[in-house]
Amino acid sequence: AVRRVLLLGEGNFSFAASLCGSAGTHVVATCYESEEEVCGRERAAESIRQLREGGAEVVFSVDCTKLKDYFLPEEREFDCIYFNFPHCGRKAGVVKNRELLAHFFHSSAEVLTEEGEIHVALCNGQGGTPADQPRREWHNSWQIVAVAAGAGFILSNVHPFKAETIRGYKCTGYRSQDKSFCIEGALNHIFTRSTPLPHFKPMICEIQLENRKVSFPVPQVLVDKINRGFLELNSNHPVQTVKEKLTAELSQVFPLQNIDYCLSLLHQGHLNDICHSSVFWIILSPEETPSTGEMSNGVANAVLFSHVDFCRDTCKNCRGNVQEGCRISNQYYLRPSLLPCARAIIQRGAFVPGTVHVLSGPVFRKCLITPYSMPVFHEVVFVCAVNRDTEDSCIQMLVNSIKTGIHSLQQTVSGFKQNISLQEVISLETTELNDFAAFESHLSNIQYFICMEIDTSGSCEEGFCVGIIRTELVSSELVVVFASLNLDLLAMLICGMSDWRMLWTSDTRFLRQFPRGALRLFKSFSLYPPSYVHDVSFWVPDGEQFDEVAFHTIARQVSGEMVISIQLIDSFQQSETGRKSLCYRLTFQSCDKALSRQEVAEMQRLFRKEINQRLRVTLR
Length: 620
Prior knowledge:
Layout: E1 3-8, H1 14-19, E2 25-30, H2 35-39, H3 44-53, E3 57-59, E4 78-84, H4 94-108, E5 112-122, H5 144-149, E6 153-160, E7 187-193, E8 204-209, E9 212-217, H6 238-251, E10 256-258, E11 266-268, E12 281-283, H7 297-303, H8 307-314, E13 331-334, H9 339-347, E14 356-364, E15 376-387, H10 391-414, E16 420-424, H11 435-443, E17 448-452, E18 464-473, E19 478-486, H12 487-495, H13 508-511, E20 532-539, H14 548-559, E21 563-573, E22 580-588, H15 597-614, E23 618-619
């Protein structure tokens, strides 16, 4: 197929002429001025003649903010649009040039193919990205990435604009005159379409529970993360590749048995030693559950509560404080870990001594917003029952197999090994835990952490806890060894990802980087995404403890995981009344999608509304 290329704002058409004649490319070169004005410029007439002889189209008096007006519907599919050194003309300032770019991007969206690219060359410093050296202050730049986001585009690449490599090219147009300008250090910014921001509808999940089928409303913050199939056999997702490599290494030492098929998403009963606000509670209605078509926000809210909301509104004995006696027969929760499942298998005696039983699947936890805190991730648990006198050797063989698997993956990706160590737990009070390890420590007594360093400092504390090992005596002769690993965190560290959200992106460019499950260093397709800061302050209800985890979970929900940071920046208590006021700063940023200032403003508005209604705070 012929590749259609549109060039805008050509000064003397020398850049367009350099592209003309490329095999399989049809060039449409345009400029804002009339043909009479342009032909008076140096080299323009010769470049125009060369373009026409080469079969290119040359169009004059084209306004880059109204592109669809110049092309018939069947001619509006361009594979690439070039706009080199756009400018409003004369001494126009940064604000006017931002407006020009904003209108240009919106106009380009109407004539660009779905997989098309927009190339915008800017002088050094104008773009306002870290690629500019030196970098201008944000307010004094053209803020090109934020401007493009308003039209649904993300910056996917940026590289130097090397004028000396472009045959016959000469820049012109300094202050609307036929004069050249300095393009040393200029950059070419390449934009592509973003997948649209999601608008999640209420979702019903149907599962088999205790020999019956039940349906339950999925918490809104998890709607795009249920039933994604990352661990299916035909999956190319990095978490599946990591799991396959680890199990392959273990199979060299132990016989293996997979038991994923019997794991339920929902658990029931009391959670010992776990903060109840950290799990997703599901209240199954005793009546017939509505179908997906009948589901509405009202119905979802009627059957889905946080534990505190549920107790406050329904249990007069508890009144929002979790108590030992508060048990409701239809109260379930999404599994926060696979370790209880593994323990249940051991207690039933459904295991073969000497065999490693493998459990894997997604687990769900409410947590504070930090770069490596995941409300959902894929866990794998290896369980092996051995004689007491072989406990230490079993642990060592498990760890060695895990190390070998991770080292093999790491060498494939980057060519070097990261240090992986086994750290014995002396006292949890003196051990720094990340969210994964801290939660697991409530479920069981941890004997060892499996740590993975990401630098060369040689200190495990500067790395990440990616797994835990614990043991449990089941008889006078048998001891069971449990090894639990966070597959998502492992995939992130091995592939060099800094944002857990990227593992859950719906953008097909992510999985294209891992053909047939081959791991490699991840290259982001959304560079220097803009961030937006909003503050919110409020009075906390009298006599109630502020639930910060619920506060963060609401932020995740209303923003679709676009909030990357929440910081308490001020707190104040009135001496007369004792009322307490809190002020938090929220930072919004997407790792894979275009996120505009207007969209963030709407998210902030919804956030204020939700915390007012659900946490009963009084906004200031």
